[in-house]
Amino acid sequence: MKNRLFFKIFILIAFAIAPIASAQDAENNKKEISNLLEKKRSYNISKGYGYCIQIYYGNEITAKKTDTQFSVLFPKVPTALVYNNPEWKVQVGHYKTKLEADRVNLIFREKFAATIVVPIGK
């Protein structure tokens, strides 16, 4: 008797969930969502996305020295000198998640004391 009751409840729940799942699929296929996804893709292409690690912020001469030192210590990690009037920044790496950048930052912090993780494109 309990098995039959359990089976009936299971069937009732299964049929109740099916229309919800198909309604959700219909919502996800709307044109507005496609437009939003396209806008996000174009923003990511133009502005970038992810995180990098800033290892220096200050004057030009020290920034260039820091960039060279970093390139010698970590030759496979890309570096970039960024100029925001009146200061220079040395930013390194390109990481998809903040967690990934934080893990690598612990390694870089052993050699360069003032490192921070910054979002790309902001």
Looking at the structure, the CATH topology of the largest domain is Alpha-Beta Plaits
β-strand amount: 15-25%
Average predicted local confidence, pLDDT: 84
Report how far the terminal alpha carbons are from each other.
Answer: 64 Å
Level of helix content? 55-70%
Instruction: Give the low-pLDDT segments.
Output: none
| Total count of domains | 2
Total E-strand runs: 4
Shape: elongated
Topology order in helix (H) and strand (E) letters: HHEHEEHE
Query: Largest sheet at a glance?
Result: 4 strands, antiparallel
Q: State the CATH class of the largest domain.
A: Alpha Beta
Structural class computed from helices and strand pairing = alpha+beta
Radius of gyration: 25 Å
CATH architecture of the largest domain: 2-Layer Sandwich
Order of strands across the biggest sheet? Answer: 2-3-1-4
Count up the helices. 4
Name the CATH homologous superfamily of the largest domain. Sporulation related repeat
Describe this structure in words.
The chain is of the alpha+beta class and 122 residues long. It folds into 2 domains: 2-46; 48-119, Alpha-Beta Plaits (2-Layer Sandwich). 57% of the residues lie in helices and 22% in strands. The protein contains 4 helices and 4 strands, in the order H-H-E-H-E-E-H-E. It has helices at residues 2-28, 31-47, 60-73, 98-108, and strands at residues 51-58, 79-84, 87-95, 116-119. It has a 4-stranded antiparallel β-sheet with strand order 2-3-1-4, covered by helices on one side. The longest helix is centred in the first third of the chain and has 27 residues, at 2-28. The termini are far apart.
